[in-house]
Every structure is written in structure tokens, then in C-alpha cells.
């Protein structure tokens, strides 16, 4: 039994050494990953908005490159109702820097799902 413990003790440092060897590869690959696709930026923005607001994104409705990075429009359910067609939705505009980090966001509009559209949310009957 003493031999088994001795073998286990020598294997553990070998794993740590292997982990240390692979770490520089990740650091070296980082600069190449700086230029992100619109899809990558949109996914990261949706994830970060969800973490900040506690609400799950429904979908990304727009992505646009800006001088400072990106602007992403994300649709979020603010209040679930029955039936679903009466859910309260909101569109958030999220600013993301060139590295993909959220730098700001605000709610651009709020509306009832069944009365959406490009206007103000269908304020009339």
C-alpha cells in the first residue's frame, strides 16, 4: 500500500507541470482572438447583459460595429404573462469594446409582445 501512495504522489506534480506548459499557449493565442466576429460579440453581449440584469435574452435584434467597438441590440422578456402574447419585452442597446467587454447598456424601449413593431409598442387599442 505504501508503494501506491508513493506512485500517486509522484503523478500529481507531473499533472501540474503539464498544466504549466499549456498555459503559455493560451496567452500566446490571445492577441489573435482580438478581432471578433459579430456573432461572437453578440453572444458575449447577451451573456453579460443577462448577468447584469438577471433576465434571459430572447434574441439579438441588431449588431453594428462602432468607432469604439460594437453596439448590440438585445430583446429581453421583462415580465412573463399568460398568454405569452401579453409578455412585456424590452430592447436593450449594449455597448461593447473591441475586446468584447460590455462598457454600457440602456433600455431603448419596452412593449407588449403581441403589440410590438417598430413604433412605441402600440400605445393605442
From TrEMBL:
Residues 1-12 have a biased composition (Low complexity). GO terms for biological process: gas vesicle organization. Pfam families: GvpO. Residues 13-28 have a biased composition (Basic residues). Residues 1-41 are annotated as: Disordered. It comes from the Bacteria. This is Gas vesicle synthesis protein GvpO.
Amino acid at each position: 500500500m505504501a508503494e501506491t501512495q508513493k506512485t500517486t504522489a509522484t503523478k500529481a506534480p507531473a499533472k501540474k507541470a503539464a498544466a504549466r506548459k499549456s498555459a503559455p499557449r493560451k496567452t500566446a493565442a490571445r492577441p489573435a482572438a482580438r478581432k471578433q466576429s459579430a456573432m461572437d460579440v453578440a453572444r458575449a453581449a447577451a451573456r453579460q447583459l443577462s448577468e447584469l440584469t438577471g433576465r434571459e435574452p430572447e434574441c439579438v435584434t441588431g449588431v453594428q460595429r462602432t468607432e469604439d467597438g460594437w453596439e448590440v441590440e438585445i430583446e429581453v422578456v421583462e415580465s412573463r404573462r399568460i398568454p405569452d402574447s401579453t409578455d412585456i419585452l424590452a430592447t436593450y442597446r449594449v455597448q461593447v469594446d473591441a475586446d468584447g467587454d460590455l462598457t454600457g447598456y440602456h433600455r431603448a424601449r419596452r412593449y407588449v409582445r403581441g403589440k410590438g413593431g417598430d413604433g412605441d409598442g402600440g400605445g393605442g387599442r
